[in-house]
Design a protein that fits this description.
Mean pLDDT: 89
Strand order of the largest sheet: 1-2
Shape: globular
């Protein structure tokens, strides 16, 4: 837990690679689905991936590629 200026942050911190993957998949999803569609897709469960697309894409390069393939099919 980090405390700054009276605020507490209990969430996970992302590595620079994870931040890059997160930004990349968000950009692609918005371009393909619009902002509301991207939010719904990235935060929803995707049976073909076994989890939330955003989590899968951020976790690894192969996860990012898997989510990109699904976005291309939509």
């Amino acid at each position: 837990m980090i405390e700054r200026a009276g605020r507490r942050f209990d969430g996970p911190y992302l590595s620079s690679d994870q931040i890059e993957r997160q930004g990349h998949i968000l950009e692609l999803a918005i371009a393909r689905l619009g902002s509301q569609g991207a939010i719904a897709f990235l935060n929803g469960e995707e049976p073909g991936l076994g989890g939330r697309p955003l989590d899968i894409a951020v976790k690894s390069s192969s996860g990012l590629e898997a989510v990109k393939r699904i976005l291309e099919e939509l």
